[in-house]
Amino acid sequence: MLLLKARHAFVLGVFVLLTVTCNLDLLVQNVMPRKRVSTTPTLPQAFTRLNLVAEENGGRVVSTTDEDPDFPASNLIDGCTRDYCQWWSSEPPQFPQIIVFALANEQVKPINQVVLNAWASDWRSCRVKDFEVWVSASSSRFSDMKKVGAFTLNYVGLDQTFTFDPVLAKYIALVIKSNYGGEAGTMLNEFEVYEAPPNTRVVNPGNLVAAQNGGRIVAFSSEDPSGDWSAINLIDGDKESPGWSSEENLNNQYVVFAFKGNRLHQIDRVILNPYSTNYQEDWIKDFELRVSETTAEPKAMQSIGRFRLERVGKDQSFTFPPVRARYIALMPLTNYGGTAFSLNEFEVYAVSEVRQQSSSPQTIAAKNSTSDDAPTPQLSPEVKGTLANLLHQFAPRATVERISVESTVWDIVPYVYHLYGTFFDSMTQVTLKNQNAQAVKVRVEATVTNYTETGVKTVTVAPNAELVVELNPPLLPGVMERLTEAKSASLHVKVEYLKEGERRLIYEETIPTKVWSQGDVLLQDPRFHNPFIFEATLVTPADPTLDRILRNATKYAPGGVIIDGYGTEGDKDGKVYGNLKAIYRAVADDGVIYVSAGIPFLSSEEKAQGYYMQRIKLPYQVLATRSGMCIETSLLFASLYEKIGLDPIIIRMPGHAFLAVPVSKGSATYYFIETTWVGRASFETAINSGAKMFKQIKPYLAKDRRDNYFWLDISAMRQEGILPIPWR
Length: 728
Hints:
The chain is an alpha+beta fold. It has four domains: 55-195, Galactose-binding domain-like (Jelly Rolls, Sandwich), CATH 2.60.120; 211-350, Galactose-binding domain-like (Jelly Rolls); 381-515, Immunoglobulin-like; 520-719. The protein has ten helices and 37 strands.
């Protein structure tokens, strides 16, 4: 049976193509690699970076302006990057979209980094483009937040990291300003927030008088005798509470505040919020601020100005020349006609200074959990139900040394096996449950007999904890060439407890599985909108059999030489055209012709579940057999063109595939090549036929959202981590 469990996948969606020399949004270069890596220097081991908005770490979605019921905002923090785990807005897209998150257990943390991933296997143009990050250390209302950065998400489905000056936050808002032009809504797969490193200090620590930041009230003139309008409400961070009210007396009222530890700060801004559901006539109108470095007695303090608060129940900010202060006094002067003074919240902020203490910047490995071996998020219920009959799973064996083990295994599908553990779930998952009161060290090994090397991991499992160990043992040399048919196979799993220098066997099992043919390719899969993206792995520029074709192509190339890469802008020197034509003629000389002989197959059970598979020749097999159907000849030419530094694009339409190549690097003008003419007609015929076909299908490419028409940019796939099969 087919056993492939989706984990991560990336795809290029359909662009709006208006002319034969079509306009495409340019792919932003120099994006992060798929795996998050630490490039110099690393953090001390004791510091673990947690995704502070992840559900598993206590984060939550507080509010959102819009969400599709089937793709809610909670998907952004579920740790799942699969095809059905995105947030989507409604159709058509509206901007801005605002999603507010609470950090882990609603604790105030110094943060300086967010990570966004916009992957979906289709509707690429709906990905988030421009966005802002806003934060608050006290309120989840967006109107109370401040902006800490504006950014642009690159046009790829990778984890992308954005850094800003460290700031204290309890709540964070993602404000989406635009997408890449899609009309079906706006989507994002995952949103992560990370704490600033321990060697980074937040010089402006947010609201200096907030109780949660160590601020306090040292004196006040009076408060409402009911006890419901206490002065402490001014610094509790809750803007829904009643706030403070004086007694019914408008003479000589005041509240004096001190900073954490009676520390001295240079301040230049206050925020007042008068909101209350009743008694709006009591809201403060005019007020005075006084400060001192030595005394909390209002009469002895220095005045720094008088200000007017509007009769609007929202945060209102007031600035003044920087002044040093240990205490600050709020002196109400007038109200809006009531008999007392009332105010909801009072905030004080320090002058911004240099943020970073360390001598050199650091690139940090962002992680959602404390261990590289943390469990992989489970499949959605719909997909899990679909796969219920496909999973090889063994129930826990009898517990040994109070350690229980459970194994699962997925069939090896060779053309994407090198993507297991990144774009897909790992082939082998061994769940270890430690029922001891102390940590245990365990060695796990797995091998598919006759097909893979032995994969080994040694891990430590915490007391009374569960850990999933994932293994993807490499294929043995030469296996790919031998896999001309699907084969039954056996996975051997062994788990040993390492104690006092000895190995104690606690689990050993042989599990039946299957290794599919090297050319068995999924055309439909219920877990993906579009598994066609993975056919980029079949474009194999490193295949040594291509060298013979390129050598023979030199006799047709301009100047007798095939030169890597692009030439002049717009191919004015004809270099690209000349190389395309020379390679086409060399393939024709080799005897390759179009033959339609694809083999679709799968069991009726799998077909009923939505799978469809076809056996496709790899480029070396097309050359060996001198024949290929449209997708196979397209893959061959794409491999040859990528090998000489060009950027081929495979265009899919119902029942057919052909090729496009930009005329120069980053150009929006293309040569279209109908590869099935090879060996039967001239290159000029293939070019003209390709252009005519593209002209016919471009309206469908622009509008189709069912993946019947698709533009697969191989260069972009490489940037997203979908690499060629490493089979030779």
